[in-house]
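Chains adopt folds. We examine one example:
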Amino acid sequence: MSMVSIAPSQQRDEACQAIRHLGTNALPLIFHWFRAKHSPIDKLLNLGRVRWPSGLKQLSSGERRMAAITAFGQLGATAKPLLPEMIPLLNDPSYAAFAVPAVQGIGLQGGEQILALTNAFKLRYFVTDMHVLAALGSHGAKAAGAIPLIIEKLDAPSYAVRASAAVAAARVGAPAEKVVPLIERNLSGTNRLREGVLAQGQADEMNLWSLGEYGPRAKTALMIISNFVSDPDPGVSQTAQSALIKIAPTNHKTPNPLP
């Protein structure tokens, strides 16, 4: 199970698939790792890794717990009884990044559990912010209580987080009068900080898609969206055209398919 924590992505994916296959048979080991306590050996391991970076394969207690958190997420609803223990980890800087996808994989129930995802915003780490925003958006209107925090993320330093917030805002039903002007500003090219997680075209597509989801309520954005119709990136161009049709269907006809 150590592969869940430290292996390269392909091996990690294979390990996760094996855990899903084992199902409840994997629970005793996962429980044991999940409840791993910090020990003096952890400090020795850290010191040893500084001296022998590739020579020590034993996992620290924290790494075992991270692997267990990920494994519970792979088990899905089977691990639902663990949710009361998992949700507080969204508040823990050491484990929140692992807990967000894990609790999503297990399955959150009710507004209170869904809103608990926002505790991970305290990490102030852009990748975790993106995961939280994607998770909130997946719950649609059930995550409406998080709208103020989602709108705040439209002002985040990272353009990738701002684009993720735009999608989440559209999916949970955040008010157009507050969201649309912020997305317009973000599309205008100001305050862009490249993080290396999303290509700029991907972020533009996300922002344009979000404006399209608001339909006629985003009519103030028609001019800026039009600027992207001739974008050299086909995905951006097509998303811009689709957004225009959704916002002003009488002014923009669906393009004819190519022969």
